[in-house]
Design a protein that fits this description.
about 120 residues, mainly beta, 7-stranded mixed β-sheet, 4-stranded antiparallel β-sheet, about 0% helix, elongated
Length: about 120
């Protein structure tokens, strides 16, 4: 059984910073991509940032220059450093990983989410 557990959400004032972390655990053979998504009230879930196993990264235009994703392949963790936060960054942030376990092909896994609230 694979689990993704997020930590680090909270309440911060506009202009502040937060760091989200996600740890993947369980019987994994290999992890391809690790990513952060977010979902604001009344909106669809959207990709914030993604990092592949080789280290290449992708960012949503709205967070470029403010957020930095990093990954530790040895520890199966992914982090998101969020700086210069804006009220529009308020959302539930979800960790995502595409990985293989014994007996399965590449499968999408999600964490339960962590709330980030940015006050103006």
């Amino acid at each position: 059984q694979v689990q993704l557990v997020e930590s680090g959400g909270g309440l911060v004032q506009a202009g502040g910073s937060l760091r989200l972390s996600c740890a993947a655990s369980g019987s994994m053979l290999s992890i391809n991509t690790m990513a952060w998504y977010r979902q604001a009230p009344g909106k669809q879930r959207e990709l914030v940032s993604l990092v592949i196993s080789g280290g290449s990264t992708t960012y949503a235009d709205s967070v470029k220059g403010r957020f930095t994703i990093s990954r530790d392949n040895a520890k199966n963790t992914v982090s998101l450093q969020m700086n210069s936060l804006k009220p529009e960054d308020t959302a539930v942030y979800y960790c995502n990983a595409v990985l293989k376990t014994i007996g399965s092909s590449w499968t999408n896994y999600w964490g339960k989410g962590t709330q980030v609230t940015v006050s103006s």
